[in-house]
Amino acid sequence: MKKWKVAAGVLVLSVCGVYASGQSMSVQVKETVLRDKPSFLGATVAKLSYGDQVTVTEEKSGWSQAGADGVQGWVHTSALTRKKITPVAGGGQVGTVASGDELALAGKGFSKEVEAEYKAQNKEVDFTEVDVMEKIVIPEQEMRQFLAEGDVATGKGGAM
Question: pLDDT band for position 116 (50/70/90)?
Answer without folding.
Answer: confident
